[in-house]
Records
---
Amino acid sequence: MNEIKVLLYGSGLPVAGQLVHCVVGQDALHLRPHEAEDLRTIPFDGLRADVAGFEHDRLHLAWKHDDSSDWSLIPADAGEQKKLIAALPQHVIPGMAQWQRATRSQSWVWQGIIYALGFVALSFVLLLWQHDRVAMWAANRVSMETEKKLGEQVLKSLNPEANFLQEGEAVNTVKKIGEQLTAGSRYQYQWYVSKDPAVNAFAIPGGFVVVNSGLLKHVDSADELAAVLAHEVQHVEQRHALQNMVNSAAVASVVLVVLGDANAVAMMLAHQVSTQYFNRQVESDADIKGVQLLHGKNMEAKGMVSFFKKMDAGFDAKKEGEKEQPSEVAGWFSSHPDTLIRIRVIEEYLAQHPCGTCTTLTWDKAAMLAGLEAGEKSK
Ligand SMILES: [Zn+2]
């Protein structure tokens, strides 16, 4: 019998779960060893499958115990998960068939993408000492169509149905300002608001821009929001996000060849995009081109400075009347380094390039916040 390592959660167990061995039987899961005798066998018909984990890639099996307490388990790692999915029957456990289908199709799509980008690995290894240039060279050869497909896959792996607001004033506000900024672009942008308290926003190759609800709560004016969007738009327009992805795809294709696990590589790539890291040069480039974009649309760019200054100060917790979680501010901050230097560069640019025709944007902040609240509740 094939033993699969899983982490078990339930009353009396450690918060981080207890490592136990699981065997898939004819019509039940058998767990061992565990002190509580009656926990050993869980019939399939009491199980329910859904997704868990930060990347929404972890199979989560839940059931109710006799005393109606909630129990659940997740596979110990990606390898164990693969074994468990293969061993479990499809139609007996609610949610399972869908899970298996999703896993299979995702893994195929990713395998295709990774192999398609695999040629970069060779250049990457050969030209390691100037891999930034290689990534730029390769990224500039990716067609807009491929870039869009790539972006769609990344977006899908972020599970938009569960994590993004679908409608309401918050989504409309981001969309309205974003569309004003990107009118006439070669990209067709899509704007998303993620139910995430971290003060962050990020761009996905192909023109997908995601703004966290945490960021929307911390911008004090429509100009500040426009500045953040302009910065992210430039990560798309300058293909920074794509270059980053080509860079990691080069590494990923090596990992794939070594490990042969497309799901693990897909997880790695998706994670990379949402926690994207650019060096200061790239960030400054996005800042200044973001300012130019704003000015080109006659929009006031000073919001970029005021927002960055707030980021640098870590926001005023008392003024907000709530306790600031350090991790919430960390999002954009950690992925956007050297804020003080960047502020200085922007201020110098603005001093040399004043925009007489630029005007301040207006918005209904109260309606936007109400939209956020309603959207977050409707989860
Ligand atoms: Zn950036």
---
Amino acid sequence: MNVVEVAIINVTSYMGMEAARLLSRHPGVKLVSVTGRSEAGKSLASVLPHLSGIGLTIDPAPQVADVVFSALPHKASAEVLLPLVEKGTKVIDLSADFRLKAVEEYQRWYDFSHPAPEMLQKAVYGLPELHRPQLASCSLVANPGCYPTGAILALVPAVKEGLVHPDIIVDSKSGVSGAGRTLSMTAHFAEANENVSAYALGGHRHLPEIVQELEATGSRKLSVTFLPHLVPMTRGILTSCYARLADGKLPDGEKGVAELRQVYRDFYKDEPFVRVADAPPQTKQTLGTNLCLVYPTIDLRTNRLMVISCLDNLVKGGSGQAVQNMNVMLGFPETAGLESLAVYP
Ligand SMILES: NC(=O)c1ccc[n+]([C@@H]2O[C@H](COP(=O)([O-])OP(=O)(O)OC[C@H]3O[C@@H](n4cnc5c(N)ncnc54)[C@H](OP(=O)(O)O)[C@@H]3O)[C@@H](O)[C@H]2O)c1
């Protein structure tokens, strides 16, 4: 395997440090530079002792590299990445800055005017299960959000095959690391521990991404309600999706359930990181791994599709997926650096 030089911008974020952890074990990667605004000049080992084996000093700006990962917040990420993209560097953006195709959505959901609308068409939405051929030849990857990864992977086989009515409910529960490392009232131990809360009832920023990708696959307008919840765990997202089954698409009763499962198994049969589970999956089964577990079934009393998915928001929901995208982009084996099993219990 060739070795490429990689830089990580904002290693002090949860996404940045998880990317460093994964890339440090990647056989085709030499990590050459990591940045962090408030910790520049310090050794990575002193700031993040769990990464002490890597041995770099935190830079104020990324040094030249073949591939750059950005774990900056939205808006800041585009500003730093656009000059790199112009220079021809391969870039993987973990922020939302290049995920949406319709430029007006940035004003609406992220409250900023996008600095390079033309790049939105060039960027590839980094969900390999949907966009592998485009990823293999692109230089700017828009790595998906954590909630959208779980929701889209749960729904896309059913939406693509027209198995459901367009009225869909996505109900997600996330661990606290999904909100990042910046301190906030909701993330305080005393607020989050032994507590569960719904938030963003007026519309969460990840909703347009979910709709964009599902509508593109199913070729029709959808009406999606997405409701996220915060639960007292560190990592993980469990997503439950509901939609009424389209008439006459599946046989009644258990035969319909079996056929539905087969549709999902066929859709994901060659995917290294999506597994159709035989029982409702649990977040711990994906802890520390790049796996997304998906369990489709039917509520036979109401004729409703129910799909449960789960993943680790920092791995398949973020940095692991970014490494998977890099592997596809560079022609590395897609599982390189991502082979580990879940940490359990
Ligand atoms: N958390 C997740 O599960 C998840 C999943 C998928 C994608 N993402 C996306 O990945 C990116 C990183 O997320 P995160 O949750 O890992 O972040 P985070 O832990 O909240 O990182 C926040 C850090 O970013 C730095 N920062 C803030 N504004 C900055 C700016 N304008 N310029 C430079 N540095 C700045 C600050 O570092 P200093 O203290 O050095 O100032 C701050 O400590 C975000 O775009 C997020 O939306 C997150």
